[in-house]
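Before going further, learn to read the protein records used in this course. The integers have meaning only within a learned vocabulary of local backbone shapes. To see the layout at work, look at the sequence and tokens printed below.
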Amino acid sequence: VDCGVITEDELKLIHALNQINDAKSVKVMWNYHGVKFENIKVTADRAINYLGVIANCKASVDDIEFKQIVIETNGNNQSSYVGCIASGDIMKNVVLDDINIKGINYVAGLVAYNDMGLDTITAKKVIINATGNNVGGLVTLSNMYKTFINLEVEDSEISGTNYVGGLVANYNGNTGNTLKISNSKITGNTNVGGIAGYCTNVVKCTVIDCEIIGKSYVGGVIGDGGNLHYGAVENTNVISDDINSVKVGGIIGNDR
């Protein structure tokens, strides 16, 4: 798919991408280059794994934009892996703008499960309201030792229960270089961080003008994990909202 704007009407015609209002998990083998997905709403009234504008993309994504996207699971369904792209491989040069997502577990602004790494992703006005675990502004889980490079989130609100991060929820590997979040609010219970809820390696990151709220294992950069090579936290509040909270830190909640 190359060079064009895909709105909700067009997306309904391309049923292999995803469905509208009756989602199915579909593996998409196309490459996406120079495509803009705009003004699309995806809803599910029953439990569906891999819910997104693109459900499951096992191909390259480069130079694409998601704008004015709404993805939501209604009622008490237990849908997991929810994002603009529910599951995908290598992604680079992606822009997110005005994204609103409601889900349960494994909910992310860009990709719920990423298998090959992220490179140069910018996001603003990402609103995620999840009631379960593993919630990230850009990604929830990624394959071990895949690299994240040049990721930025601004003007966003990310909320979940456990393992909540402004960029990534829960990741055991090399997060890469140059990660930034600004003017954003991240809220959860345990394992809550400005960059990552849980992560074992952050090379370089910046957290500016943010509010990070949790009960335990809460940090300005990482809630739980460690091995932080360089991190700057500026004009940011790290808040515990529980008198019984443990391990709350301006940079790392719990350094392993």
Helices lie at 8-13. Confidence is low (pLDDT under 50) at residues 15-29. The longest helix spans residues 8-13.
